[in-house]
Design brief:
The chain is 39% helix and 19% strand. It is of the alpha/beta class and 456 residues long.
Amino acid sequence: MTDPATLVSRKNALTLFQAGIAAADPCRSVQRYLSASGDHLEILLNDGLQKRSGEWSLVHLIAFGKAACAMIEAAQAIIPAHLLAGKGIAVTNYENVRTIDNSEVIGAGHPLPDTAGFDAAQKCAERVKSARQGELVLVLVSGGGSALIPYPVDPITLQEKIATTDLLLASGATINQINCVRKHLSQLKGGGLAKMAFPADLHALILSDVLGDDVSTIASGPTVPDATTFSDAIDVFKAKDIWGKVPASVREYLEQGRLGKVKETPKPGDGLFNNTAYTLIGSNALSVNATLQAAQALGYDARIYSHQLCGETTEAAENLVSTAVALVNNGIDKPIALLAGGETTVTLKGNGRGGRNQEMALAFAIAAKRQGLTGRWTFLSGGTDGRDGPTDAAGGLIDQDTLERLINADCDPAALLADNDSYNALKSSQDLIDTGATGTNVADLQILLLYPHTLY
């Protein structure tokens, strides 16, 4: 039976995680930056002081990403109904689909694209192309948008693009690397949507799931210039040593682009972006700061460990354990909360089931035992979207007794980690986090709670 102090610590970790998710609430984020007075719309820009405003004759509303439903619902409540150019279009993952008045909500595949997403992407393209000068295309972007609206260039098929995405995900490629490729295989991404909207005005409200909030990477940058090239996309495959496994049509298309026989994505300085702008309305950094404030309110000595946690998941876990061991061995006189946000990567070597957050939790438990992290501690690693990899869990929530629970359940923690089977490991130790789909996505949060030995 788990002791009461550990139960309180686990509850506190979940409280901090929920505070981070709440800070990325897509409805509130839209309401902060979009307003209307009569037929006059105002959109706050990134500094929160300057505004973009106008009396556009029509507003074409498009949303895609895991927060699409909440974002489009909030926007429709603000924009006068007579200004809306027909029903809005919201494309989201299947778990977040719900009915919204005056909007067509379309469920699509994530993290791997599917035919429903392809059909949705075509609908978005048709709507955007119908916009005229003096009208506004308002695009609501959130995490997951890259996979949800696949619109491959000719002659690449959707199945070939899915196979390519699958290869990249399994290779341990970073989100920036994956999106570089996506932009060069898509009609919408890498500024493609902005190109379709010209000469209408376009504005994007963006909820970021990308470290550093590079808007050209978020959802693969459909509304902003793309500085990457076909050569960069080819280099991603070669760096991961999977170029030979890429479908032949994809290799040929990228090579044609590298030789200048296929037009590049729109670049910075292109005149088609003169009528476009964007506002970053939420991010992982804001959510990490929210966990910091919540930890302080609970009496922890709260510290930011990293705003950009990345790299191989097991290495990130090892490094965090090393930091914790050093703190505890030097002596702490009050509970500490080490907080991080980011997006690590997993290079698949086994046949198990899991996600990067579950794998980090399992790797942390193993490293804590090996490195001698003593006393009472609790560690949470979770995805703010409530879905970690292709599982129904948001991540893992472990403590100093996790390995003992695994062994008592006749599990071999090291073997499960080697097989990338963190889901079944944490299920056996009763350490999975189950939030359900949250309706938002600003990457991952990590929360480590450490306690003085006097409190153990």
